[in-house]
Write a structure and sequence with these properties.
The complex is a heterodimer of chains A (about 325) and B (about 100). Chain A is mainly α. Chain A has one domain (about 30-320): Ribonucleotide Reductase, subunit A (Orthogonal Bundle), CATH 1.10.620. Helices cover about 65% and strands about 0% of the residues of chain A. Chain A is built from 14 helices and no strands. In chain A, α9 (about 170-195) runs antiparallel to α13 (about 285-300) and α11 packs antiparallel against α14. Chain B is mostly helical. Chain B has one domain (about 5-90). Chain B has helices at about 5-20, 25, 35-40, 45-65, 80-90. The chains are: A mainly alpha (about 325), B mainly alpha (about 100). The interface of A and B includes residues 246, 257 and 312 of A.
Chain lengths: ~325, ~100
Amino acid sequence: MEATAYQNASLAAGLGESDTEPALQRPGVIRDLYRAFKEEGRTLMDITWEQHRHHESRRWSVMELLAAVRPEQLTELDRFVIWNAGRAEMTAKPSADRMSRLADAECRRFQSTEPAVASIIQSLGTWSRYWNEEESHHEMGFLQLTRMLGFASLDDATVLDYRKIFPDDDLLRTVTMLSFSEGIAAVNYGQYMRRVRDPGLKALFKHVGADEVQHMQYFISFAKAMVDSGAYPAKEAFAVAHLFLREGGELYGVAREQVEHRETHVNWWDHLEEGASEMVAAPESLERKRSLILHALKRITGISCASAEEVEDTWLELVGC
Amino acid sequence: MAEVADLKDFIGRKFCENVGLSPEVLFGEDLSLGEVILRSEKMHNSVDLMEAFAKSSNALRKEYGVRVRLPALSLETPISRVMELFVQECQQGRNS
């Protein structure tokens, strides 16, 4: 296996010795992970290598992008959005830390009884390191930019507050929720990107948004594999979809009437400041988010719903009495 | 449509079954939804609570043929208010 990995790495680096060696396939998210482990006999090393290639192939430099931003060209709204985005991204780390802990515990639960499920969950836990690292680019990109713009730096007490690790929940619910939140974040960055004039800032939003789309695809893939395995009931994915899509639900973020005050952790989505929140709650933005959630739910469960009402009806049927 | 007292009795029993608390605790102390999560061994978060109400709604549909849809509620909402909302929805006669 090591020889193969070395040959592949050499090819990728342009060091291949022979024209007849096969070109590497473009890395991507494995869409049917349960089948990959259960029927195709792929191993954790195969999947991890694919994750790693994908991660490496998509890397970008925060320092280079920040160097291209022209602070004097930014509007008040730009500055405001950057400030909010920095705080928003601060909470990705505690979410990823929670994921690696939860995934390892769940993996051990299935290790002796359902090896394919244990492997799916281990591949999720392993991938969380790439997710965490990519999110660090977002956090540092926006926070360093706020400092460049003359905003006060976050004090240590605030950093400690934002780093509170999220509480555990059912793993399928958690992964489904993350697939939705990444999709929502991608739509938000897309909204910001279209409004911004400065090419440097536009590029930063574009790169961060593209990462969030990729994260959404990974979370969908893991959640689908968990449902496909039969170890996790689809009703949990539907519960989260209902939580987001119902009247006054999480989809509406800070714009909803009821926003919970949490002592346990900070959810950036509840704390967006005025201006940024108006942009992300605009009707076209909400419609995009709704459709992404419905699409993700279909991919995860195989059940298609066209509206929030249909999601609720299906969830109620799955829950039973 | 059933009498309000019957409905309340039925809904109350289902709430207690589904959240795993006695009527004396749940209604006697008129717990808030946040307190229900803290006091119940079956509940860990608001999604668990949402599912408990969904099961109660399904039981109502099976018994009385009415569909109850609940809006998002804050964790400060007392259980008596949730009961009122269930009864109101039933009285509006939203047949399934």
